[in-house]
Amino acid sequence: PLKAVILIGGPQKGTRFRPLSFEVPKPLFPVAGVPMVQHHIEACAKVPGMKEILLMGFYQPNEALSRFLVSAQQEFKVPIRYLQEYAALGTGGGIYHFRDQILSGGAEAFFVLNADVCSEFPLQEMLEFRQQHGDMHSFVILGTTANRTQALNYGCIVANTGTQEVQHYVEKPSTFVSEIINCGIYLFTPAIFQHIGEVFQRNQQELALCPYLGEESSNGWQRAEVIRLEQDVFTALAGSGKLYVYKTDGFWSQIKSAGSAIYASRLYLNQYSKSHPERLAQNKPGGPVIRGNVYIHPTASIDSTAVDHTCVLNTIVGWDSTIGRWARVEGTPSDPNPNDPYAKIDSETLFRDGRLTPSITILGCSVTIPAEVVILNSIVLPHKELSRSYKNQIIL
Ligand code: GDD
Ligand code: GTP
């Protein structure tokens, strides 16, 4: 049997996602029509032998999350549970804390997936790769190629060109290490917990020697449980013959900012023409004109003349917002450089040199845009009624 863990993090991260993350936690933000992590769940549920999918994070369980879990279980016919960490335990601490739950039912191997990525999720290929290379006890990281400058923003992997064994792993290095980056998608066996356990024990010993290190939390135990898979575990495993990289040419991107959610939507929509043609809007007599890969939510009604009068480009429109006729709402896309096949999206900060970085336009929920105005590269907070045009502004 196999299992999968999706690391969804918690509320204090995802600030780059505001104001969108006010309404719904980032892992549930819709990408190509479905919640971000539904793409992960769907890919995991397809793998033969998948017994359970665990979402792991430090969000307080809420109604939106519970409803999503119930409907996803029904749709994908696999048990899905949420395991809540008592604090942010890092990318390795949570899975270590809940190791009994992950291994229950006799899991021989399990996937760990970062929630904030979009991907083709070549999980079956990772299993096959492990069978061919290495042995059934090795761990596999999904890797992809980035360009030399952007690679510095990711975990960087140096591997043996023949065997693909990981020789060096450096998380977000300050100088160039490798163009092969960590996609945040892993295949582990239960043996990974021995390696995480060693880090845990070392953390505990260090705390015993310098108790003041544990002061921030009520006891040192908690502090020792914070473990980063990347820096604490992969770096040590590199060169040991246990860690391999499976390189994919399939699409992959991080989803950090709202702009990258638009890019990720486009990547998934392209994939839908093969995997889910039924999700794409079709041109029908008397219906609106559809150009390219378009997802229309079942609750939306689009007038057949909808191509005229109002123009919305590179924008995320929150729920219950209205845009008047002849209005133009436009953002600047943050797409990767189209002339570089290995370019990734830059997760821009909101401000650069004291100025708002031109980015996609975001309308929070219940925003009203009147007729005949232009809103350009702006972020409009929820429940605003605008009366004029704006450019490069955050409208509070
Ligand atoms: N459950 C849980 N608990 N999840 C967490 C925690 C935590 O304490 N901290 C982070 N996560 C989740 C995030 O929600 C995200 O899905 C994932 O773990 C990684 O988040 P970060 O720690 O912010 O790392 P990153 O995204 O900057 O970099 C990671 O992903 C890159 C690929 O997107 C690293 O793994 C890089 O090496 C990798 O290249
Ligand atoms: P065609 O010759 O069929 O292309 O006719 P058209 O000029 O009516 O073009 P189309 O039906 O594509 O729709 C309107 C065009 O006007 C779009 O290409 C918009 O990008 C452009 N446009 C430019 N400024 C505005 C604006 O402020 N509001 C709207 N609604 N559209 C604008």
Topology:
Elements: E1 2-9, E2 30-31, E3 34-35, H1 36-46, E4 50-57, H2 63-76, E5 80-84, H3 90-97, H4 99-103, E6 109-114, E7 117-119, H5 123-132, E8 139-145, E9 155-159, E10 166-171, E11 180-188, H6 192-209, H7 220-225, H8 229-237, E12 243-247, E13 252-254, H9 258-275, E14 311-313, E15 315-317, E16 322-323, E17 328-330, E18 351-352, E19 355-356, E20 361-363, E21 368-369, E22 374-376, E23 379-380, E24 390-391, E25 394-395
Parallel strand pairs: 1-4, 1-6, 4-5, 8-12, 14-17, 15-20, 16-21, 17-22, 20-23, 22-24, 23-25
Antiparallel strand pairs: 2-3, 6-11, 7-13, 8-11, 9-10, 18-19
Helix pairs in contact: 3-6, 3-8
This protein binds guanosine-5'-diphosphate-alpha-D-mannose (GDD) and guanosine-5'-triphosphate (GTP).
Residues 7-9, 56-58, 85, 88-91, 94, 114-117, 154-155, 171, 181-184, 230, 254 line the site of guanosine-5'-diphosphate-alpha-D-mannose.
